[in-house]
Write a structure and sequence with these properties.
The structure is a homodimer.
Chain A: E1 7-11, H1 16-27, E2 33-36, H2 44-49, E3 58-61, E4 64-67, H3 69-79, H4 91-116, H5 119-139, H6 158-167, H7 170-177, H8 188-198, H9 201-206, H10 210-225
Helix pairs in contact in A: 1-3, 1-6, 4-5, 4-6, 7-10
Chain lengths: 229, 227
């Protein structure tokens, strides 16, 4: 990579937001340098490139930083204009895909809260999550009127990437919750979607190890539970 | 308007989110039919066009609905490709404008509807966010905010104005000015420059009417739940 065409991504292995950017770059076949950040000891570069939020992911393209995962995905699609495209070309379809991505966005916080709480709190938040998922299970039929196709010719795009970053590690969530939540009885479309995505080679490359992910969630749960003196 | 080119916008006069597409359509000179919704009695159309959220704004273009204010702005810019453009052409600048539009989340609205200690805390949070914006926006306006004469307001200006254009109403609710020129010279010059834009008068709600609405919402929220 020359300075004229350098692509770097600052990330953290367990972050679903980072996963989006990595998956997009891999799907589009863009060479990039990945920089793993220690979130308890952030690099000078990260703090310089994202002074507002100090978070990952940050894409640095030819020395210029772009932050916020969805902004990064749109940027990637606009700079690297060869196929595969992340968003459809038709403006109405683009609006629909962005609409469902916006629908899934708050569910990340909800999912995270579910995974780091327990008892009644966990149950309440989980129910809220499942009800939202019911709405999406219904509503997504407009995106997949004939069911989810295999991702062979058509590579995963913007909406698939955001969906996978939320549900790709569902086995880890199942372990924490002590039961499956993404059941085929209640969410047949979601289940077929996640399974179709898992057949895509690039998707496997970006999915964190489930045991490692569960370990991290347990560590976060313990930190939240232990009262500070 | 023919059926081949019909543009309707379902909105609510006081909604900053509904203001955004109205402002964008006017800036771009697009003819549209505006439908005022009574949010306590939403129209059949609204519920049909936005079944997921049942909210305004909804743009209906040739019978096809688009919801979510920022998504509507992007759609408008992609369909009506003549200038003025809402977003810059350069991808890096587009990313910067989208970043800052996302930064201006509706913290100010939470602040307007809170009371007492809760309001004070949320207001402090808001002011700190505005400090960050005041600094960070220097990358957008390296030479200060220009007058909006040749260059019309765009995506980021519209989002900013939708939240801060009614700051006088917020000040009446808080009981003090918060958008002060001492602390926020850039934000103040930005809002003032936008107020000179002709279309702005057509989209800004009446401040007394807006204050009255906010008061009635606050009153309704403090009514104790029925036994």
């Amino acid at each position: 990579m020359t300075e004229e065409s350098s692509v770097k991504l600052h990330g953290f292995w367990a972050s679903p937001y980072v996963q989006r950017a990595v998956l997009a770059l891999k799907i589009k076949g863009i060479d990039f340098e990945y920089i793993e950040e220690d979130l308890s000891n952030k690099s000078e570069s990260l703090l310089k490139y994202n002074p507002v939020y100090k978070k990952v992911p940050v894409l640095v393209h030819n020395g210029k930083p772009i932050s916020e995962s969805l902004v990064i995905l749109e940027y990637i699609d606009e700079v690297w204009t060869d196929s595969p495209h992340l968003l459809p070309t038709d403006p109405y379809l683009r609006a629909k895909h962005r609409f469902w991505v916006a629908f899934f966005e708050p569910l990340f916080e909800t999912m995270f809260t579910t995974l780091v709480t327990e008892g009644e709190t966990q149950k309440t938040v989980l129910d809220e999550l499942l009800e939202k998922m019911d709405v999406a299970e219904q509503g997504m039929k407009e995106i997949f009127p004939n069911g989810v196709p295999p991702f062979e010719e058509q590579k995963p795009g913007y909406l698939d990437i955001v969906f996978y970053s939320l549900y790709g590690t569902h086995e880890a969530a199942d372990e924490i919750l002590g039961k499956k939540f993404l059941t085929v009885e209640r969410y047949p479309l979601f289940v077929s979607w996640v399974n179709a995505l898992k057949q895509v080679p690039e998707v496997n490359q970006v999915t964190p190890s489930i045991p490692k992910f569960v370990g991290l969630l347990h560590a976060i749960r313990q930190r939240s539970a232990s009262p500070k003196a």
